[in-house]
Amino acid sequence: MTAADLWPYGVILFAGWFATDLWRWLGVLVGNRLAEGSEALSWVRAVATALVMAVTAKLIVFPTGSLADSPLWLRLGAAIIGFAAFLVSGQKVVVGVVVPLALLSFGLAIL
Question: Where are the transmembrane segments (predicted)?
């Protein structure tokens, strides 16, 4: 493989960096100037939370891969119980991740 054959990989690397990291760094620079309780920062948090929840809902309702083999009731039950465990534990993220994963794993093992 010659250097001329590698240029597409360089373009892909640059485009990937430009599309993600550049905007992250700009966000850090602008975000440092915002007050902790500002309306702009509250809006950014709300949008970020909505995006995460949209992806989570998509994975639960329209799963792909091996998750698609699990029944909807198992996915919904794991999510609901996992969220309840998250709240009961004092909003510990590790509990909110481990509990539904364990429930899904157990449910798939016995089905």
Answer: 6-30, 42-60, 72-88, 93-110
